[in-house]
Each structure stands twice: as structure tokens, then as C-alpha cells.
Amino acid sequence: MSEQQKVYPVQAEFSAKALINKEQYQAMYDQSVQDPEGFWSEQGKRIDWIKPYSKVKNVSFDNHNVDIKWFENGTLNASANCLDRHLETRGDQVAIIWEGDNPEQDEKITYRDLYTRVCKFSNALKEQGVRKGDVVTIYMPMIPEAAVAILACARIGAVHSVVFGGFSPDAIAGRIVNSDSRIVITADQGRRGGKAVPLKENVDEALTHPDVKTVERVIVVKCTGGDIAWHDHRDVWFHEITEPASDVCAPEEMKAEDPLFILYTSGSTGAPKGLKHTTGGYMVYASMTHQYVFDYQEGDIYWCTADVGWITGHSYIIYGPLANGATTLMFEGVPSYPTHSRFGDVVDKHQVNILYTAPTAVRALMAQGNDVMGNTKRDSLRLLGSVGEPINPEAWEWYHKNIGNGQCPIVDTWWQTETGGILITPLPGATDLKPGSATLPFFGVQPALVDAEGKELEGATEGNLILKDSWPGQARSIWGDHERFVQTYFSTYLGSYFTGDGARRDEDGYYWITGRVDDVINVSGHRMGTAEIESAMVAHKDVAEAAVVGYPHDIKGQGIYIYLTLNEGVEASDDLRKELVKWVRKEIGPIATPDLIQFSSGLPKTRSGKIMRRILRKIAANECDGLGDTSTLADPSVVDSLIDERLNR
Ligand code: 6R9
């Protein structure tokens, strides 16, 4: 039997205790698509509303008028849903377990403590002039103050824009300019794998960018105590403004469709897009998916290893778990520090029941060998999750056996920054698992596969993945550019949302995501536009032209392969290659570090000047037979020299 046909049936014992079993899944799914109004009207009640909604769904996917509204006449506050409503029943329960990069450091924060810390910082933010509707940029390490900052913004109605701590000064600057952000919250330094990350220094540099004109305040958390530059007119210490602040702060009443946050992500063209997520529908969806997909039950210790700088951190470290009154673990470090058994150590130390991580982390551990988890037991685990990219069956099996002791179902969750929450996924008490398949749609989600012309394909088949109707967690727009939102997602297949992913559907209706069908690559679960890397490359003085493609990489899923032509008179050399690698890291950040740079005398172009990426992808994958038709190239001989000089063999 090939790996792809292997089935792990739902365990009867798991199912008996689970929130949703097979019959319930089917009945609820059917209702959710036959009567979305009724279904979501009921599900919306999981959130506390200040003013209840009476309108549930008001959505148009028509590309002349894309308009997405859920629960539109209701009002609520996201932070009150994550904090205030739990005080009476679980004020003394731990909300956040913080585990430091250094294994000696940890902290347990109860719901009451977190509430107090958020209220105080909310008042401090107001003192600093932050008002409802303002955009606050958060560039922070994985420390409790990151959660406090996010929830404080939500509390006062400010819109947070979290920028991943691994991004460069230029990337921060771009996001600040695009969102007109007046306030930045950061830390002196972060810690990862025993090394300091110069966060404040990066912010300082970002703010020297000539286009950054809006920032009035930088709020700095003292994290490592490392040396930093200080600008009196602009910088304030987090603790200095927070300590004296009152611990009473009434949550702002927000409309369901008021923005909660912006989160930037890469697309196939242009600069990163700021996806706009709103309050009501997002909270309903984050909370519901967190509860059902992870079968979250009272008392469970839940750990999502993502960074808060990604959508996974937003929905499944902060908003979903806290809305559900869960105990959520926040990890500052990396899986390989101080040793490769760190995940196992943390699971044992805090008796983690649910672990949600990324295939790239699994493959990196797998590369260390089967005894990488050392003496750790991991017997508290009852469920594992995967997100960020397709998980290959081999890594799935390894994860199941070596992390989960062969005992835990794995939920392979497919979703996107744009979707706000998980869309295609097993429910662990309801879905038979097939390693490598994200399986079936969540409630209310209507996936379909279409061919290049947009014709819907039936049965077992392969095609482009679209979604035929809305779900409450969906992004509503691109910040400041609704037209781009419409163009990107609603203009390829009219009347549907286009995901940018391809997928296969098998005889059982299970979905197998095959990866991006656009010029987006997925490196270690991080999304990157090839156009973004190309434009960084050509900004270098020695580079004439660049083409970037992904190629299969054992650990990262995809690696970054760059083809470059240099300006006249510039010599190709290893030193130049090193300099170019450094350049990309500076322009975008370490996650965009090129794996392979091939200098070439030309790129394969059609007579109309279009680079034929299909050919470059094949060469990068070391699949030089079957390059397909090259007759439309302006100069077909370029291909031979590219093959001769290829790097990935
Ligand atoms: C949540 C997140 C989204 C892209 C998405 C797809 C890939 C995510 C996946 C998966 C296969 C899974 N992706 N989860 N592919 N199986 N379980 O990762 O959001 O950073 O926006 O990336 O990631 O290609 O389109 P984001």
C-alpha cells in the first residue's frame, strides 16, 4: 500500500470523549451549508455581544461589488471576550504559560493577572494619545507583553499591525508607511536560540527611512536589558508608562465590522498586502475553530509554536484560545535550543495536551534522527496539529510516531492569512486521517476545484482551489486598497474566492493541497512573493536582472533559487554571491535568505520579454528532461547554459 492510501481511522476512545463525532460532523456540516444564516446565528452566540446582532450574513463575491459583512449590527469588544468574561468563572486559572528561550525562565499568568496587565497598558496607550481607529505597529519578541499589547489595542479599539520580529528595517518601514501608523511597540532586544535579536535597533533604522513620517512614539519593553540608542522626544519605556496607569479600563464598544487588525502577507505581485480583519466574525470563527479542530476541553494545556507575527499566532495563540478560556502556551525560543529535544522538554515540563506546529519543524527534528526527543516522555499529549505548508506523508508518520508516541491524531489544518481561521481540516473525533491530506472542509466552508477556465470539476480530480461562499473569519479587504483585494481574490474565478493554491480531491472527497499555483513560494511555512525577492535583488547596484523560483528542499519544503544576470563589467564571484545573500537579508529579512544563486549570462524569455519561469523551476528542481516546449523563446540556447551551470544537482 502506498503511503498516500494509508488510513488512520478515528480512534473510538478519542471519539467517545470528543466534542464532535462523525455523525455530528455530518449533520452540522450539512446544516452549515444548507442554512448558513441559521447555523451562524446560533454559533455567533459563543461570543459575548454588547448589542446582539439580528443580521447574520451579508456577503457579495461579485467582482463589481465585493462586500463581506457578518453580524453587522452587533457590537462587542474582542479583549473583553478574551478576558473580562472569564474573570468570574476562571479568574485564577492560568491563561498564558510563558516558556522562555532560556529553559530556566518561565511564567504563569492567570486570567485575572492578564486582565490587569491589559487594562493598565490600555490606559497607558490612551495616555500616549492612541485613539480608537489608530493603527499601532507591534514588533516584538514572543514575550507576554506581546499578548498584552495586542489585547490592549483591541480593548481601546486601536487596530494592531504585528510585524514579525524576523523582518528587516525596510520591511518594518514599508508596513508603517502603508498603514500610517503613529505608534510602534517593540522591545530592546529579543532572544532566540541564545542569541539577541536587535529589535529596537531595527525600529530605529526603519524610522530613518525618508518615507516614514507618521511615527510619534516608540514604546519599548525592557526584555534583555541590552544596550540600545534612546531618543527622548520619541521613545518611552513600557514599564514606566504602565506602572502608574489605572487598572480599570472599560472596553470600547466596537461594531462587528470595525477593524481588529491588519496583517501583511506576500502575494504574487507587488508589495506585501495588509489584510484587514474585522471584529465580530473573526472572533466567532477563531473561537469556534480553536475549540472544535483541537477538540479543546476544559483544563487542556494547549501549545501552538507559531510566532505572534503570523496569522497562526493571532488566531491560535491569542484570540481563539483566550476567547475559549483556554490555557495557551507561548514559547519564546526555537526547537533546537538548548538541544533538539526542546519540544519534548517543554511538553513534559508543562504537561502539554495539544501541540500545534509546522511541517518544517517536524522535518528539521526528523533530520536529527529517531532518538532526537531523548528521554522526554510526551505522554501528556493527546492531539497534534500541523500548519503552514503541505506535510509530506513521511514527516506525518514520523511526527505521529516520534512525537505523539503513535497515540495522537494529527490535524493537518489548511488555511491562510486571508481566511482568518482554519478551513480544511480533520476534526479529531470525527475524521479518519490520511497522512498528507488536510481532509475535509470545516463547517460553513465550501471548497471546489476548477480548471484554468473556471469550470468546476467534479469527483476525484485535481485543480485550482476556490471557495464558493464566505465564512465569518474571512479578511474583508486589503488595507487602503479594496480594488487590489477584488483583483487578487475575486477576479480570477468570478463569484468565488480564489485561494492561490492547487489541490487534488480523492474518491472520499478528501483534499490534498498541492501548493501554490501562483508566484508565491513557501519557505519553512513562510510565504514569500518571488516578485518581492526579485525587486530586492535588482535594487543591488551590480544586478541587471533576477528571476526567483522555489525548488524542493528537504527541511524547508521549498528553498529559494535565484537566477541572476549581472551588469556589464561586473565579475561573478563567491564574494559577490555572499554579498548578495547579505543584501536580501537586509532588504527583506533572514527568512528570505537565498539558498542558491546562479549567475547566468541570460534568462529564458519569450519574444515578448516574459521570463519563462516554468523552465527555471524545472532546472532548479534538477528535472532537466522534459522542459516542455522551448520554441517560443527568443534565444533557446540560453536554456543549455542554464542547465550546464545549474547548482542543485
Ligand atoms: C496559516 C498560514 C498560507 C499558505 C496557503 C498554502 C500553505 C498553509 C497548509 C498549507 C498545505 C496545509 N498552507 N497550511 N498547505 N497544507 N495544512 O500558513 O497562512 O502564512 O498566509 O500561508 O500556506 O499554500 O495558501 P499563510
Automatic annotation (TrEMBL):
Modification N6-acetyllysine occurs at: 610
- The enzyme's main class, written as a single word, is ligase
Q: Please tell me where ATP binds in this chain.
A: 388-390, 412-417, 501, 516, 527
What's an example Gene Ontology biological process for this entry?
acetyl-CoA biosynthetic process from acetate
Positions bound to CoA: 192-195, 312, 524, 585
- Membrane-spanning segments: none
EC number(s) reported in the record? 6.2.1.1
Kindly state which keywords UniProt assigns to this record, in alphabetical order: Acetylation, ATP-binding, Ligase, Magnesium, Metal-binding, Nucleotide-binding
The chain positions of domain AMP-binding enzyme C-terminal read: 532-610
| Domain of life per record | Bacteria
Cofactor(s) needed, names only, are: Mg(2+)
PTM per Swiss-Prot/TrEMBL: Acetylated. Deacetylation by the SIR2-homolog deacetylase activates the enzyme.
Chain residues that bind Mg(2+):
538, 540, 543
An annotated Gene Ontology molecular function: acetate-CoA ligase activity
Its GO CC terms are: cytosol
Q: Which residue numbers delimit the AMP-dependent synthetase/ligase domain?
A: 84-468
Reaction catalysed by this enzyme: acetate + ATP + CoA = acetyl-CoA + AMP + diphosphate
- InterPro entries registered for this protein in UniProt: Ac_CoA_lig, ACAS_N, AMP-bd_C, AMP-bd_C_sf, AMP-binding_CS, AMP-dep_synth/lig_dom, ANL_N_sf
Q: Which residues form the Acetyl-coenzyme A synthetase N-terminal domain?
A: 25-82
Q: Which family does it belong to?
A: Belongs to the ATP-dependent AMP-binding enzyme family.
Report the protein's function.
Catalyzes the conversion of acetate into acetyl-CoA (AcCoA), an essential intermediate at the junction of anabolic and catabolic pathways. AcsA undergoes a two-step reaction. In the first half reaction, AcsA combines acetate with ATP to form acetyl-adenylate (AcAMP) intermediate. In the second half reaction, it can then transfer the acetyl group from AcAMP to the sulfhydryl group of CoA, forming the product AcCoA.
Q: What is this protein called?
A: Acetyl-coenzyme A synthetase
